[in-house]
């Protein structure tokens, strides 16, 4: 009945997916910045592990943005 309406909904869904993944990338960048700030101020034996996990999280967030861009 409304074929153009469904096309607009699919387009809106794709835009929400890409914007959501970009917001998640910004969140991952904030986590990396906070972990780096914390490791400068707090000395602990687990700082290296936290840094590694924060950068892995950032890489996964970047991959999510690329996948959302390609798939959607």
From TrEMBL:
Keywords: Membrane, Transmembrane, Transmembrane helix. The keyword Membrane applies. It holds the Pfam family DUF5657. The chain crosses the membrane at residues 15-36, 48-71. It comes from the Bacteria. This is Uncharacterized protein. It comes from Candidatus Shapirobacteria bacterium GW2011_GWE1_38_10.
